[in-house]
Structure formats: structure tokens, C-alpha cells
Amino acid sequence: MQKNVGGIDKGIRVIVGIAIIAAGVVYQSWWGALGLIPLATAVLGWCPPYAIFGINSCKTKHPES
Q1: Are 38 and 16 in contact (CB under 8 A)?
Q2: Within 13 A of 54's CA, how many CA atoms are on the CB side?
Q3: Cα angle for residues 22, 8, 53 (degrees, 5° grid)
Q4: Which end of the chain is more exposed for a tag (fewer CB within 10 A), N or C?
Q5: What are phi and psi of 30, to 5 degrees?
Q6: pTM for the complete prediction?
Q7: DSSP 8-state symbol, 30
Q8: How far apart, in whole angstroms, are the C-alpha atoms of residue 30 and residue 22?
Q9: Left, alpha or beta for 46 (phi > 0: left; psi -120 to 50: alpha)?
Q10: CB within 8 A of 56, min separation 6: which ones?
Q11: In the 8-state DSSP scheme, what is residue 22?
């Protein structure tokens, strides 16, 4: 798994994840659990849809395989 989520992207994912979780708590809905997805991708630094579509917002260079 190569990292494909960069710094700004991670920050946005953390903010969005926390906002979704907070909305779930405020509205007492289990839908707030979906906020764990952007938080997990931020922590891991890897996003499955990014990998599928070849998107990479991470600026670090990875050696070619």
C-alpha cells in the first residue's frame, strides 16, 4: 500500500470526518459512524478510490516497482 493522501488532503479528511461524527451525535443517528471512513483514510494515508483511479495527493516520491 503506497501512501496516496497528502498533508492538506489529510487535514480536510480529518475535519470532514469529525464534522460527520459530530452531526451523527447531534442528530442521534448512526450515520455519524460514516465519519470514521475519512478519519481512517487520513490516518492510514491511503485511499482505495484514489488507488483505483491513479490519484495521488502525496508529494513524497515512491520508488518505481
Answers
A1: yes
A2: 0
A3: 95
A4: C
A5: -70, -15
A6: 0.85
A7: G
A8: 11
A9: beta
A10: 4, 6, 50
A11: H
